From TrEMBL:
Homodimer. GO terms for molecular function: 4 iron, 4 sulfur cluster binding; ATP binding; ATP hydrolysis activity; ATP-dependent FeS chaperone activity; metal ion binding. It comes from Alteromonas pelagimontana. PROSITE patterns: MRP. This is Iron-sulfur cluster carrier protein. GO terms for biological process: iron-sulfur cluster assembly. GO terms for cellular component: cytosol. InterPro entries: Mrp-like_CS (IPR000808), Mrp/NBP35_ATP-bd (IPR019591), NUBPL-like (IPR044304), P-loop_NTPase (IPR027417), YlxH/NBP35 (IPR033756). ATP binds at G100, K101, G102, G103, V104, G105, K106, S107.
Length: 361
């Protein structure tokens, strides 16, 4: 029978089902659940669009087993995390992707994670803060693109594949930026963030410069970051540098949201065996030591490199591949961690609406 129980009991039952599905306490899932006329609605505070259908089916089956026949809708709405600094216009969350050391795959991870978040239904922008070695334009295959300006004061971000992006690489030749001193580099980042006409974004992914020096510290202090993800490879040396990254972020009170271990293993294409080229288990141990989630462990894979280097990141070029799913899993884990661990901003006065009519897919 349709809604055989009292509505609040049905909603409570729904919250219990969702809690069990995600292995969370019911207190967490209760605010996500409501009844809207003859429909039960679950609004997830994180992006997981590819999983909605499965969750809906699970709920409907469980309700039917209890003789409750109701239409179920699963949707999502991503909140803004509270930050000490005022929010940037139209951006709900700024997430820095940092690494203690260069060359660990921070930019590759940033761009694939950005596409993965987008495929999970979030509105995403990418900002290349790697002033001294901007690689996002190469990875997006649009090095000759230049941001337009309608009012002479703001830049339009570059749109590509459902993302918007800006990078110092679109604005000045690499050799010019390479000689900038720290304060100039920090100023350039601040300008890139504040003077871009961002459409409404759930996440702005910031590809930080590698390392943990003064530049990174100043950048982390000047930008209202919701949090940061540390990318590392499994070797001891990289892990030692990742620890420095965590320490730096702790120093400026930027929440470390989790770790991504890149080049974690190599999987043989013929026999499927995994080889731990750069040692094994380092990311897990580091995550345990700092009580952080390991959001993902990405393999060392030729396809990841070829796609990144040829301007068509794997997640957007081959969305149906197992590797793209691995990035989406990391994206869902990141988004969920943010919603569960960060306090949401109560007002969203910085969200003003899209100034440039970007049409997200
Ligand atoms: N998982 C992976 N498998 C194979 N190649 C990878 C992987 N991740 C990154 N690479 C390759 O490694 C190289 C360095 O990657 P990337 O530029 O992302 O590193 P980075 O940490 O951002 O470097 P930098 O310190 O210069 O900013 C690139 O050629 C990239 O394609």
């Amino acid at each position: 029978m349709f809604f055989s129980r009292k509505p609040d009991k049905t909603v409570e039952h729904l919250a219990g089902l969702v809690a069990k599905y995600y292995s969370l306490p019911i207190e967490e899932t209760r605010p996500w659940c409501r009844q809207d006329n003859d429909k039960l609605v679950v609004t997830l505070p994180f992006c997981a669009a590819t999983q909605h259908q499965r969750l809906r089916q699970h709920i409907e089956d469980s309700l039917q087993a209890k003789e409750i026949h109701a239409a179920v809708e699963v949707t999502q709405q991503i909140p803004s995390a509270q930050t000490k600094l005022p929010g940037v216009t139209n951006i709900r969350n700024i997430v820095a992707i940092a690494s203690g050391k260069g060359g660990v795959g921070k930019s590759t991870t940033s761009i694939n994670l950005a596409f993965a978040l987008q495929q999970e239904g979030a509105r995403v922008g990418v900002l290349d803060a790697d002033i001294y070695g901007p690689s996002i334009p190469i990875m997006l295959g649009n090095t000759s693109a230049r941001p337009a300006s309608v009012d002479g004061k703001h830049m339009q971000p570059i749109e590509v594949g459902g993302l918007v992006a800006n990078s110092i690489g679109y604005l000045v030749p690499e050799e010019d930026a390479a000689v900038w001193r720290g304060p100039m580099a920090s100023r350039a980042l601040k300008q890139l963030i504040d003077e871009t006409h961002w459409p409404v974004l759930d996440y702005l992914i910031v590809d930080m410069p590698p390392g943990t020096g003064d530049i990174q510290l100043t950048m982390a202090q000047q930008v209202p970051l919701s949090g940061a993800v540390i990318v590392t490879t499994p070797q001891d040396l990289a892990l030692a540098d990742a620890q420095k990254g965590i320490a730096m972020l702790n120093k400026v009170n930027v929440p470390v949201l989790g770790l991504i271990e890149n080049m974690s293993y190599y999987q043989c294409r013929s026999c499927g065996a995994k080889e731990y080229v750069f040692s094994h288990g380092g990311g897990t141990k580091l995550a345990e030591r700092y009580d952080l989630p390991l959001l993902g462990a990405m393999p060392l894979d030729m396809q990841i490199r070829e796609h990144a280097d040829s301007g068509a990141p794997l997640v957007s070029a081959e969305p149906d591949s197992p590797l793209a799913e691995a990035y989406r899993e990391a994206a869902r884990a990141l988004s969920m961690t943010m919603s569960l661990t960060l306090s949401a901003r109560t007002d969203e006065t910085n969200i003003k609406g899209d100034p440039i009519g970007v049409r997200f897919q």
